[in-house]
Amino acid sequence: MRRMTSADVDAVLGIESAVQPYPWTRGNFSDALLNGYLCYVDEQSGEICGYAILMPGAGEAELLTIGVAAAAQRRGLGRAMLNEMLGLARDRQLNRVFLEVRASNHAAIALYRSAGFSQVGLRRAYYQNANGSEDALVMACDTNFFPGIRETGDENG
After folding, report:
1. Residue 94 and which of 39, 64, 87, 156 are 20 to 30 A apart at CA?
2. What does the H/E/C string look like for 79-120?
3. What sign does the CA torsion over 6, 32, 155, 17 have?
4. Active-site residue numbers?
5. How far is CA 38 from the centre of its chain?
6. Could you tell me the pTM of the whole model?
């Protein structure tokens, strides 16, 4: 993985639009870069295959988004990227990482649980969907006890 640059935004947008039903906009990614968030991409053979954005705060962080190109899914890349982002948080003494995930995204929830995340809240009607909205699980992981993600299971990513 390497730091994302503004030159990467088109490729990241292409992945985001293909894998997310309600994708981030160019402005969302540009703002994350401009605000100094930890924006990373995974590049293989000159092609961006995944991305992740972590927003640091006072002693904690929020994983804002993580995505893997459809052709690169189910090969452990999402797991490796999540592992790397949690390691970056720990290295920066960001002791807890939060995220929101669609309640219907069982593969992502399993991946996050395998990394040590647990549910700490629920945001009702947080995400837009075809039926109007759906809930988001709020999950958190303590990076002080982050063991790395186990290589078991067939979680998405």
Report:
1. 156
2. HHHHHHHHHHHHHCCCCEEEEEEECCCHHHHHHHHHCCCEEE
3. negative
4. 100, 112
5. 11
6. 0.88
Residue type, 40: Y
For residue 15, what are its two tokens? 């992945």
Which structural domains are found in the chain, ordered by start? 2-145 (3.40.630.30)
> Cα separation of 80 and 88, whole Å?
12
> From CA 69, how far away is CA 42, in angstroms rounded?
10
Core vs surface per residue 96-129: b (16+ CB within 10 A) or e: bbbbbbbbebebbbebbbbbbbeeeeeeeebbee
| CA separation for the pair 93, 73 (Å, rounded) | 30
Assign residue 145 a region (left: φ > 0; alpha: ψ between -120 and 50; beta: otherwise): alpha
- The string of DSSP letters for 132-144 reads EEEEEEEEEEEGG
Please write the tens of the pLDDT for every residue from 48-103: 999 999 999 999 999 999 999 999 998 999 999 999 999 999 999 999 999 999 99
